């Protein structure tokens, strides 16, 4: 891929797919678990813990589905 100069394009496409999937999963998980802006204003520490957990789980899904499966 380096010799055919397609590596950077391929990596950019994968990066875009990963970011889109990550954003979608975080939004879906937060909605499902009731992590809202109201929670953020009422108890920011709880919101932060829940969002950190959601991001970690979403990242694992993205890595498994898009990176490790290649």
Task: Describe the 3D structure.
This protein is an all-alpha fold and 70 residues long. The protein has three helices and no strands. It starts with 6 loop residues before the first helix and ends with a helix.
Fill in the keyword field for this structure:
3 helices; mainly alpha; 70 residues; elongated
Number of helices: 3
The end-to-end span amounts to 15 Å
Estimated helix fraction: over 70%
Q: Would you list the SSEs in sequence order as H and E? A: HHH
User: Could you say which structural class the secondary elements and strand pairing correspond to?
Assistant: mainly alpha
Q: Name the beta content range.
A: under 5%
Low-confidence residue ranges: none
Kindly summarize this structure in a few lines:
The protein has 70 residues and is mainly alpha-helical.
Which secondary structure elements does this structure contain, and how are they paired or packed?
Elements: H1 7-33, H2 37-42, H3 44-68
Helix pairs in contact: 1-3
